[in-house]
Write a structure and sequence with these properties.
Layout: E1 6-10, H1 14-26, E2 30-34, H2 37-46, E3 51-55, H3 63-73, E4 78-83, H4 88-96, E5 101-104, H5 109-183, H6 191-222, E6 231-234, H7 235-251, E7 256-261, E8 267-270, H8 272-288, E9 295-304, E10 307-314, H9 321-324, H10 338-341, H11 348-358, E11 362-367, E12 373-380
Parallel strand pairs: 1-2, 1-3, 3-4, 4-5, 7-9
Antiparallel strand pairs: 6-8, 9-10, 10-12, 11-12
Helix pairs in contact: 2-3, 5-6, 6-11, 7-8, 8-11
Bound molecules: adenosine-5'-diphosphate.
Length: about 375
């Protein structure tokens, strides 16, 4: 309803109508009048009124009909019946049917004014209530959304815990199983088997340590406790250093590593240790998922003067499009490569992703099954002053 208070007055006595209308206009209301009941109904159907004042006895229709239609079209309309002593019973019936009040003829203006003021106050309260309920509904909806997001987080945590327990159990079972065989007095093993089993135990223990370290890294990042410690360093020097670290690993599969630095890439301002870990994770994946004598390349170049792009490229087994969607998730290993699966713990890429994101960057993969993969990350280059 509009801010202006619209009142419809209907009475078959033109004099009464005139007096009421003049008095109400004097009070500041916008008044519409109707002498006939049908005329009043037509007006009600055309526009909403805050207040309808209707004589209970009209020549063409009953005031009760006006009440019924007015309330049906707009339940908030307050209908005030004007009644003589003779029709007071009908007026009481009107109240039961939802009329706001009735007033006896001759109408005392002060009494009518009080009734109108009360009706308008109740209408305002009703509107305020409705707005409050709507606001409450909106907040409830937001709460539900937050709840749902929380549930998803909690579900993700449970999934993570389940996967983690599984990953921990596998090497532990292997350690327990092989050590039990070695320790068994009933059926002693020969020296060669003994050494072989000890080696399995050693590999499983190392895997376990790697897994636990990765989980610790991840939880440190997740809890927000890992912060950037940027410094200025030469990227080429860092990559040479990384190369020295990975060369023994690459040598086991006779793989080569080529580092290419684009023009202008020299000193950068970033977290050196975290950059090293990103490269190590990507290169060790390239090593794991590339066959003997495979070629690995690292290319770093400036995409713009302030954005560094680094790619780790291999000519290995590649990743199918559907698997590319999930490999950055925790334990998001590719199920179709069981022989290579055991080599990793499935956290390297999610750690690399988070470390890149900590730098404000992003990481993605381009790959084709059987034709190798290119993992690229881009990071905005901060300046020493922090700009
Ligand atoms: P993992 O410890 O298994 O290497 P990651 O999170 O580093 O865990 O990698 C997740 C999975 O993504 C790997 O198990 C592998 O299936 C796939 N993947 C990662 N890097 C490569 C790559 N260079 N070539 C092919 N597959 C890869």
């Amino acid at each position: 309803m509009s801010l202006v208070t619209n009142i419809l007055v209907t009475d078959d006595e033109p004099a009464t109508l005139e007096t009421l209308s003049a008095a109400l206009e004097e009070m500041g209301y916008r008044v519409t009048t109707a002498v006939k009941g049908q005329e009043a109904l037509a007006l009600i159907r055309r526009q909403p009124f805050n207040i309808v004042i209707a004589d209970i006895k009209l020549p063409d229709i009953s005031g009760l009909k006006i009440l019924e239609i007015a309330r049906e079209l707009n339940p908030e309309t307050a209908v005030i019946m004007i009644t003589g002593h003779a029709s007071i019973e009908t007026a009481v019936e009107a109240i039961n049917e939802g009329a706001y009040a009735y007033i006896l003829k001759p109408v005392a203006m002060s009494e009518l004014e009080t009734i109108i003021n009360n009706a308008l106050r109740e209408q305002r309260l009703l509107i305020e209530n409705r707005e409050l309920v709507e606001r409450l509904r909106q907040s409830n909806k937001r709460l539900e959304e937050v709840n749902m997001a929380l549930e998803q987080v909690s579900q993700a945590k449970s999934d993570f815990m389940a996967k983690m327990s599984h990953e921990l159990r596998t090497p532990l079972n292997s350690i327990i199983g092989f050590s039990e065989v070695i320790l068994s007095k009933a059926s002693p093993v020969d020296q060669a088997t003994h050494d072989e089993f000890l080696n399995y135990i050693h590999v499983s223990a190392k895997h376990l340590l790697h897994l636990i370290n990765s989980i610790l890294d991840l939880s440190k990042i997740e809890s927000g406790k890992m912060s950037l410690e940027p410094s200025e360093f030469d990227l080429a020097v860092l990559l040479e250093d990384v190369k020295i670290t990975v060369l023994p690993m690459l040598a086991t599969k006779k793989q080569t590593l080529q580092i290419e630095m684009g023009e202008g890439v020299s000193s950068i301002f970033a977290d050196e240790a975290k950059m090293r870990q990103i490269f190590l994770n990507l290169i060790s994946n390239a090593h794991k998922f590339t066959l003997t004598e495979g070629k690995i390349r690292v290319i770093c170049q400036l995409e713009t003067p302030h954005v560094l792009h680094c790619s780790v490229i291999d000519n290995g087994i590649g990743i199918s499009p559907q698997d590319q969607q999930r490999i950055f998730e925790e334990f998001g290993q590719v199920k179709t490569s069981p022989n290579t699966r055991r080599q990793g713990v499935g956290l390297g890429l999610s750690i690399a992703k988070r470390l890149v994101e900590l730098h404000g960057g992003k990481i993605w993969v381009l790959s084709e099954l059987g034709h190798g993969s290119t993992f690229t990350f881009s990071i905005p280059l901060a300046t020493k002053g922090g700009a």
